[in-house]
Specification:
22 strands; alpha+beta; 4 domains; Thrombin, subunit H; six-stranded antiparallel β-barrel; single chain
Length: 444
């Protein structure tokens, strides 16, 4: 509506009425002098009175429009309607964001990160690096701390919040995504996927970082860049990621990036602050990529670009003495997922993956470095995994160095989960000794 245009038309109408009023008065005066017609005078007086009422009504309408225009140009910060409009989605969305805890074989629990419910029957998306190493989880929905009772309560029921059991379904090492399934028969509030977006989209991040001390923590910002090169030393989503300005912290891993409508724009997985810069940029996996991986693989229980291990790729060069220019890449295995193909092949934690199908896991010349932090990336290893997953080959041989036995061996992964006995080998690298590889073991 063009309020200013309507206001001008009102003024014109008032002027025309006043002119008509003056003409009528002049005309009536002449008629009185000439005809002395009392009835005509009375009629004209009634008409004038009616016109006055119409003018008064129009003045009130103009005054109301002035107030409306004024309220639009200078909003009242104390107006409750304005406050309601600012909160574009309510706390019902909070119940779709979960605090994830892993349960080990001794029933000990460990806080891991954040996840989001994406189906009404309780499938939960999070990061691979959050959930890897655990098969069973406790997940907690939105709650508030009651300091008097010293318990966490559900504000909807005022009852103590209870954990819900969940279990691992499948994951993608190279896209840092994992899918869990809640043990529930009740329909759960869930988040929908957003779709295409552009820089400047206002977004929110909801999660359970350690800085929140158990409370759901919300931060906001905008999408700052698209198709960011998102590969790191521990995952390789490539250009299927984006940067945004909503701050994230330890514990925000796996948290959803939401639009104003409460739809998933992406899944957070890391942040980076460049040296000498005051602020960091947060990075998330594009929602459409995440949805496709979930729909095509994870929700069916199929892993995608995943050997069932977690760790980081690096190069021995960084641990050698200054002046020693020897280079050899490795993937240091920090975690082996239970019942994964690597676990079945008897691969263990604290081992160095050196060769995959007789190829190095990264480039010897250190040319494959992340533009963000200058460290080797997982790109080549993930390309090797992709090649194997898309082939008809059932087996994949890995050459590893074990820190526990200080020796080399070959482990064979099998797509069908067949157990193939590993076997020891001599050092296949002439330029390097066990002492060189033990430098890695001693630094981890």
């Amino acid at each position: 509506m063009n309020l200013s245009g309507k206001k001008v038309n009102m003024k014109q109408k008032i002027i025309l009425i006043l002119c008509f009023l003056l003409i009528s008065l002049c005309s009536s005066s002449t008629g009185i002098e000439n005809n002395d017609n009392k009835e005509e005078v009375s009629s004209l007086k009634e008409e004038v009175s009616s016109l006055k009422e119409e003018v008064s009504s129009l003045k009130e309408e103009v005054s109301s429009l002035k107030e409306e225009v004024s309220s639009l140009s200078t909003p009242d910060n104390n107006n409750e309607k304005t406050k309601e409009d600012f909160l574009t989605w309510g706390s019902e969305y909070f119940y779709s964001v979960l605090d994830i805890w892993g349960i080990d074989s001794d029933e000990n629990s460990y806080g891991l990160g954040t996840g989001a419910i994406i189906t009404k029957d309780g499938f939960v998306i999070t990061n691979y690096h959050v959930a890897i190493g655990y098969e069973n989880f406790n997940v907690y929905s939105y709650s508030e701390y009651d300091s008097a009772k010293e318990i966490w309560i559900d504000p909807q029921t005022n009852k103590q919040v209870e954990e819900i059991k969940a279990e691992w379904v499948a994951g993608s090492q190279c896209y840092d995504l994992a899918l869990l399934k809640m043990d529930t028969i009740d329909e759960k509030p869930y988040l929908e996927w957003y779709g295409d977006f552009i820089p400047g989209l206002e977004i929110y991040t909801l999660g359970y970082p350690s800085v929140g001390q158990g409370e759901l923590t919300v931060s906001n910002g905008i999408v700052s860049s698209l198709r960011n090169f998102g590969s790191t030393s521990w995952t390789a989503p490539g250009l299927d990621t984006f940067g945004h300005t909503a701050p994230i912290f330890f514990g925000n891993s796996g948290s959803p990036v939401l639009s104003e409508e409460g739809k998933i724009v992406g899944i957070n997985y890391t942040s980076y602050q460049q040296q000498d810069e005051q602020f960091s940029i947060s990075y998330a996996i594009n929602n459409q990529v995440a949805k496709k991986i979930v729909d095509d693989y994870l929700i069916k229980g199929d892993n995608y670009l995943n050997l069932g291990i977690d760790g980081r790729v690096d190069n021995l060069y960084y641990l050698l003495e200054i002046g020693d220019d020897r280079k050899i890449p490795y993937f240091f295995i920090e975690t082996v997922h239970p019942n994964s193909i690597s676990d079945i092949a008897l691969v263990e934690n604290n081992e160095l993956l050196l060769l995959i199908d007789n190829e190095m896991v990264d480039l010897n010349d250190l040319s494959n470095l992340s533009p963000r932090d200058g460290y080797p990336t997982l790109e080549k290893l993930c390309n090797q995994i992709r090649k194997w997953e898309n082939s008809n080959e059932r087996d994949l041989e890995l050459v590893l160095y074990s820190c526990s036995i200080e020796g080399f061996y070959v482990a064979t992964l099998n797509k069908d989960g067949e157990e193939i006995e590993p076997y020891g080998i001599e050092n296949p690298f002439d330029e390097f000794t066990k002492d060189d590889f033990n430098l890695v073991c001693n630094n981890n």
